[in-house]
Amino acid sequence: MSIDYGERIPNNVNLAEDRRLQRALESWQPGFLRWWGEMGPALPTQDVYLRTAVAVGREGWAHFDHVALPDYRWGIFLAERDPDRRIAFGQHRGQPVWQQVPGEFRAELQRLIVVQGDTEPASVEQQRRLGLTAPSLYDLRNLFQVNVEEGRHLWAMVYLLHAYFGRSGRDEADALLLRNSGSEDSPRILGAFNEETPDWLSFFMFTYFTDRDGKYQLGTLKESAFDPLSRTCEFMLKEEAHHMFVGTTGVDRVVERTATLMREHDSDDIQKYGGIPIDVIQKYINFHYSVSLDLFGGETSTNVANYYTAGLKGRWQEERRKDDHLLTEAATTVQQVVDGRLTDVRLPALTALNADLRGEYIADCATGLTRWNRILDGVATLYLPHVGFNRQVGAFAGHHVTPDGRLIDRATWELDRDRWLPTSADKAYVHGLMRPVYEPGKIAAWLAPPRNGINGRPLDYEYVHL
Question: How far lies 406's CA from each of 93, 192, 345, 387, 397, in Å?
Answer without folding.
Answer: 42, 25, 17, 11, 15
